[in-house]
Amino acid sequence: MNIGITGLGRMGAGMAERWVRGGHRVVVHNRSHGPIDALAAKGAVAAYTYEELVAQLEAPRAIWVMLPAGDVTEQAIEGLAALLSPGDTIIEAGNTMYKDDIRRAAALKPRGINYIDQGTSGGIWGLELGFCLMVGGDVEVVKPLEAAFITLAPENGYLHCGPTGSGHFVKMVHNGIEYGMMQAYAEGFDILRAKTDFNLDMQKVAAVWQNGSVVRSWLLDLAEAAFREDPGLENLKGYVQDSGEGRWTIQAAIDLDVPAPVITLSLFERFHSRQPDSFAAKVLAAMRKGFGGHAVKKASE
Question: Is 282 a catalytic residue?
Fold first, then answer.
């Protein structure tokens, strides 16, 4: 089938190349030209403007948007919508807030433009292993595009979750769960490392857990690979960013009156990682010294 995509970052480029390998005709667009040229060399059709992207696709068109959530995605969708025709479809495949999907779909509907939300998981490994897809939208809009979704996904890795917004809602909760899992692994390895008299090898512990253990997972595989490359993780700074989905998951839990303490605390731990000298910790130290005379360390120590 004919497929258009704008946004050729690590995942967007992987999606485009996987489609090319699957025999689809893929028209690719990106703000910078390097990724366009690289994919054109592999068989994609280059488009250096939105006008070229739309012109090189036959109606009804299907264009995937794979950009960071927020203004850049809003601008891309509005820019494309101004050029598209009734019956064309925009598929938003980044980490968008599901409420934005519902709003956009409602705004595009009077113009006759369809909207699908595609929650996408797989990272930089998606090109070779496939992308897990969680898709939201009307059945009559999603069904004609299933060939593209199936090409992207590994076996059993594609699900039409339900109406507009449901794909990104499922992906949002998926990422919230990921926060909790990663935090548990991080704390566990920190405890293991602190038991210095056992002189435990983190890479070997991770490797044995990969075989038959109930905590085996792809995240553990990634941890084992990191320990193998840098046993003490000396080349990494313990600063952990978040891209929004954890916050949105917690807000959804609040809105739905669902307790989610693990996911909530894992997000706050990411905030903690960004404070090399926590003011809250200073306040704690000051209070302990005040009521109990406990020893404190000066800032110069």
Answer: no
Catalytic residue among 17, 92, 171, 245: 171
Residue 296: the pLDDT is: 67
Please provide the average confidence, as pLDDT, over all residues in the chain. 93
Residue appearing with tokens 């897990």? 132
Which residue reads 């960004």 in tokens?
274
* pTM summary value: 0.90
Distance CA 218, CA 225 (A): 11
Query: DSSP characters for 162-201?
Result: ESTTHHHHHHHHHHHHHHHHHHHHHHHHHHHHH-GGGT--
- 80, 54 contact by CB (below 8 A): yes
Strands 132-136 and 114-121: antiparallel
Q: Which helix (H) or strand (E) holds 65?
A: strand 62-65
204 is catalytic: no
Sign, Cα dihedral of 120, 121, 127, 130 = negative
Rounded to whole angstroms, how far apart are CA atoms 128 and 125? 6
- Please, are residues 187 and 258 in contact by the beta-carbon 8 Å criterion? no
**Residue keyed to tokens 């280059």:** 46
Q: Quick one: pLDDT at residue 17?
A: 98
Q: How confident is the model at residue 38 (pLDDT cuts 50, 70, 90)?
A: very high
Tokens encoding 259: 């307790």
Mean pLDDT of the 52-73 span: 96
pLDDT higher than threshold 90 for residue 150? yes
| Catalytic residue (choose from 52, 74, 99, 178) | 178
